[in-house]
Amino acid sequence: MARVQPSVRDFDPVWKRICEEAEAAVRDEPLLGGLIHSGVLHHETLDCALAYRFALKLSSGEMSEQVLREIGDEAYARAPELGVAARADLTAVYERDPACHRYLQPLLYFKGYQALQCYRIAHWLWGEGRHDMAYLVQMRASEMFGVDIHPAARLGRGIMIDHAHSIVIGETAVVGDNVSMLHSVTLGGTGKEEQDRHPKIGHGVLIGAGAKVLGSITVGCCSRIAAGSVVLEDVPPSSTVAGVPARIVGEAGCDQPSVMMEHRFRNSEGV
């Protein structure tokens, strides 16, 4: 009997699940067969699928899909950490977003996830000294997704950007692992200084919709920033801040705010 050769799917459970979900989606909605085959099933690995989507979404009259595909393939081949981060981000969306029911969804439909993977390629280009190409990727991602992340900013793994409309993250910003943020968040500066001028967000932080964190300040690990707040001073770890300007209003309420996604305040009686 002929021996069945293992495929990449057998060694990558995330990619295997995505492909299984894609096959089911084609059965349920045959009209999406072309999109799903070209975006998922045609590719051997998740990295290849991500490079394809990067090129498809950002191509324009100024930069062809073929050139961008070559850039994407090179980035994933030379920097395996990009694929690791992509899988962590995908899992974060699936686990934290109640509207996400399949791993397939962020890859094909969620602009927050796709914009984040475009940033990761831009950041790799920046690290390679290819600043002009990184700026081009930043510009096209901003135009396509409404997410503007400077390629020099440093973002960790397991990031979820929910809805992802009007996100701005500045050049010297640092975002830790397992951070969740909603739409219209700004991690910005407070003036024209050219050095370290943007926030440093610790691991496990939850940033509510419309929050603005400004200046070279530190937001401690596992803290919460309430929706609509303007944060101008350091935030201690495991605390909740709210208001304009933001003030400490209590503890974070749980060990992992970014995972629990709990935005409500509770008083000492738990109400």
TrEMBL record:
<feature type="domain" description="Serine acetyltransferase N-terminal">
    <location>
        <begin position="14"/>
        <end position="118"/>
    </location>
</feature>
<dbReference type="GO" id="GO:0006535">
    <property type="term" value="P:cysteine biosynthetic process from serine"/>
</dbReference>
<dbReference type="GO" id="GO:0009001">
    <property type="term" value="F:serine O-acetyltransferase activity"/>
</dbReference>
<dbReference type="InterPro" id="IPR042122">
    <property type="entry name" value="Ser_AcTrfase_N_sf"/>
</dbReference>
<keyword id="KW-0012">Acyltransferase</keyword>
<dbReference type="GO" id="GO:0005737">
    <property type="term" value="C:cytoplasm"/>
</dbReference>
<keyword id="KW-0028">Amino-acid biosynthesis</keyword>
<comment type="pathway">
    <text>Amino-acid biosynthesis; L-cysteine biosynthesis; L-cysteine from L-serine: step 1/2.</text>
</comment>
<dbReference type="InterPro" id="IPR045304">
    <property type="entry name" value="LbH_SAT"/>
</dbReference>
<comment type="similarity">
    <text>Belongs to the transferase hexapeptide repeat family.</text>
</comment>
<dbReference type="InterPro" id="IPR011004">
    <property type="entry name" value="Trimer_LpxA-like_sf"/>
</dbReference>
<keyword id="KW-0677">Repeat</keyword>
<keyword id="KW-0808">Transferase</keyword>
<dbReference type="InterPro" id="IPR010493">
    <property type="entry name" value="Ser_AcTrfase_N"/>
</dbReference>
<dbReference type="InterPro" id="IPR005881">
    <property type="entry name" value="Ser_O-AcTrfase"/>
</dbReference>
<protein>
    <recommendedName>
        <fullName>Serine acetyltransferase</fullName>
        <ecNumber>2.3.1.30</ecNumber>
    </recommendedName>
</protein>
<dbReference type="Pfam" id="PF06426">
    <property type="entry name" value="SATase_N"/>
</dbReference>
<dbReference type="InterPro" id="IPR018357">
    <property type="entry name" value="Hexapep_transf_CS"/>
</dbReference>
<dbReference type="InterPro" id="IPR053376">
    <property type="entry name" value="Serine_acetyltransferase"/>
</dbReference>
